[in-house]
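Re-run with default settings, no changes from the original entry. Doing this only to confirm the output is reproducible before filing.
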Amino acid sequence: MAKDTVENIIKGVAAGDAEAVTEEIKGTLSRTIGLATLVILSLSSMLGSGLFILPAFAQEVAGDGMWFAFVLAASVVLTGAFSKSELASAMPESGGVYIYMERTYGSLMGTISGLGLFASFMLKSAFALIGFAAYLEVVTAALDVEVNPITMALVLLTFIVIINITGVKKIKKVQTPIVATAVLFLLFLCIMALLSGDADFSRPITNVDYFSPEMGTAAALVFVAYSGAIKVGAIGGEVMDPEKNIPRGMFASLLVATILYAGVAFVMVSVLPTGWHMDHGHAIENPIYVFAEHVAGSTVGVIAALLAIITMASMALAGVLSASRFLFAMARDNLLPSKLEDLNPTYETPHWPIIITGLMMATAILTIDVHAIAELASGFNIMVFVAINASVVVMRHAGPRHEWNPPYKSPLYPLPQIYGAGTGIILLWLIGANALIGAAGAIGLGVIVWVTYGRKHILEEARTTPFAAFKSRFMNPTPEAHERFLTAFQSADIGGKNHLTLSEFRAAITQGLGMELSPMEVRMYFHKADTDGDGVVDIDEFLTAMERSEEE
């Protein structure tokens, strides 16, 4: 069954029948994720730094009404959820915003959005490690141990990079119970605060200017807390009944996250004394420790700090995984050098993107102010949401040559898209110079990368030898030729796992079989043979599909 599927996909690619290939792929994907699992996966990628770090930063900007900044940010995210649901229902295969941007606007915007998304996830992970350092300082002080928290954060980052390279499986499944425990602990603290009798519920409501520029700035600052709200679209190929469950999953997780963010922030303002969020003229980076210590004492405060350390570490671990995959995907699309798509022959992970992500995170931690990191990460996320809303408008008005009739359509179109894009632009302006500089830098870098590399290599790909000609070299081999093919592929299989990475595939084709192909041609054939997009080609399935004649 699997071999027939591979053959059908390869034949479809060789014949240029995109529709047949799409249908074949859709039919082979294992759709096992239901609505409840989808909501849990989305929440596990959202709840973390938004609860453990950002409340103090938001309070510094918006005052006692900072809880409303989370609500205001969520209203903009909601429009993106509407738009992403429409895009994902039309293309329910596994992928993400980067893929939709490239399909909507072309390779230039694909390059810009890919780098912007990489920067967003990278900075969010760096932000989590800064939170790790702040809470670690609390624990070491309680234990009377002297360490440099930033140094320890960099040591942890080194281990995170190693763990990602060595390919520890199911990282995000570890993250889910950790985040769930953290959320339950915060709910426990909120209940204790409400039962204490010390809460003043009028403080977060009175004397608050809900729609002031300061509130908008605070909303822009906490926007990064919602970066995982639309992430469920990236696993669309594994979702059961995606046309219904993807929109429902986005809206349900966004609702839960907004209630948690705003609710915890509201209780914190109600129970904590004036000025709780400041220390020596700066917003604190460990607000949950301050909250827990005030509500339940120093021992519970240290427990909260320990839980925060674990949560921030797990978020950074998963964040490096997510950020590095954008570089990997862009390299597969010829928008970045091919070295970034090659997998480690031992661990079969994209080691160069992971290393680059780790180095850039370390640079951000050491050189950029924590407040500026939050602004940059939120700024890149706002850019993405503006582009998502604009994509729906573009797709709906693309004309008769590009029919657009997705199973799910955004309600009240185009009002949510206008609100989301317009408000997003305003938030970008309000967040300040750091976000604007970061946005301009991402656009400028994307243009440079596309002009100097991506454009040339995409055009070169269009001139490569057709895949059908490549396949003909393997078709109907003699027993001796088949043995030669098998020997060449197995000799190149360094890991002995019966599948090949790009570098191993290149060695088998050019060295083992002596085929005179350019590196770009080898990449093109590798990607078409790698039908499930996991970065490796199964030797037996590949040869079985390639050696059959068209009549079989």
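Residues 87 and 156 are 37 Å apart (CA to CA). Residues 1-30+465-552 form a domain with the Recoverin; domain 1 fold (CATH 1.10.238.10).
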